[in-house]
Amino acid sequence: MDEDQHDLHVTDAEIVDDAPTAALAVPTPPLPDPDYSEGGVPSFDFVRDKIENRYTTSLGTTELAGLGTENTAAALDKKIADREQTATNRLAEIRRSLRGE
């Protein structure tokens, strides 16, 4: 083989370290969830927080719906009936005054 043909078969390469990469490293075992014990039992704080969150969510939902402690459906119905009665009474009073009674 002469020298010109030998140059045609040259391959470009780079030197690679033999150190293991992160992909080949041994994975660490996953840490347990801090809200649960090794046996899978939830902690007291976790359960309390969950209950408090549900309670406050229900209070907020009720408040947004306008049905708080003083604004029950029965109380709102009574307010509407009282306003209608007041309006009827006032209209009757205006009619009497127009007639001169």
Low-pLDDT residue spans: none
Query: What structural class results from the helix and strand content?
Result: mainly alpha
Reported for the largest beta sheet, the result is: none
State the share of residues found in helices, binned by percent. 40-55%
The fraction of residues assigned to DSSP E strands is under 5%
Distance between the termini: 134 Å
Q: Would you report the number of β strands?
A: 0
| Total helical elements | 3
The rounded Rg comes to 41 Å
Order of helices and strands: HHH
Whole-number mean pLDDT: 78
Shape: elongated
Plain-language structure description:
The chain has helices at 3-8, 44-64, 73-99. It is an all-alpha fold. Among the domains are: 32-65, no CATH class; 70-101. The radius of gyration is 41 Å and the shape is elongated. The protein starts with a helix and ends with a helix. The model has no long low-confidence stretch (mean pLDDT 78).
Write the layout of secondary structure elements.
Elements (H helix, E strand, L loop, with lengths): L2 H6 L35 H21 L8 H27 L2
